[in-house]
TrEMBL record:
It comes from Capitella teleta. It comes from the Eukaryota. Keywords: Cytoplasm, Leucine-rich repeat, Repeat. GO terms for biological process: intracellular protein localization. Transmembrane segments: none annotated. This is Toll-like receptor 2. Signal peptide: none annotated. InterPro entries: Leu-rich_rpt (IPR001611), LRR_dom_sf (IPR032675).
Length: 140
């Protein structure tokens, strides 16, 4: 069991893909043991089942979530199922959120002070809020 604990502690990148046709996630997906993760990728994983994000958010530099359908504040303010208080994600520089049905940007993005790259392609956005237009330069 010490081997698994050491493995989790030393992991810096993790990818979790849920295949609903093969199996259903019936319980929480807990990241609290992966304290050194700097890159996390989730595909088809319900945000409401994520536990331990509040413990790893301070190390994350890259976050990729696709095909998970959620509101931004569920992720950045509540940290999924952690239902934590709002705290900054101090090292998150790259954020990729394609194919999530995101229809609006909310104030939870203020919790990403060092964000350099944000990919919101293939979502339901129709416009940027006024406060983003001065500070964001969209790229193709």
């Amino acid at each position: 069991i010490n081997f698994l604990y050491d493995f989790a502690q030393k992991t810096i990148a993790l990818k979790v893909v849920h295949h609903p046709r093969l199996s259903l996630i019936s319980g929480p997906v807990d990241f609290s043991s992966f304290r050194n993760i700097t890159s996390l990728e989730l595909k088809r994983v319900p945000i409401s089942l994520l536990h331990g994000l509040q413990r790893v958010r301070h190390n994350l530099q890259t976050l990729i979530i696709s095909r998970s359908s959620f509101h931004l504040n569920e992720l950045f303010e509540s940290c999924g199922a952690d239902s934590s208080q709002s705290h900054a994600w101090p090292n998150l520089k790259r954020l990729f959120l394609p194919f999530n049905g995101i229809s609006s940007l909310d104030s939870s993005l203020r919790l990403l002070p060092v964000l350099e790259v944000m990919d919101l392609s293939h979502n339901a956005l129709t416009e940027l809020p006024d406060e983003f237009e001065a500070s964001v330069s969209p790229t193709e």
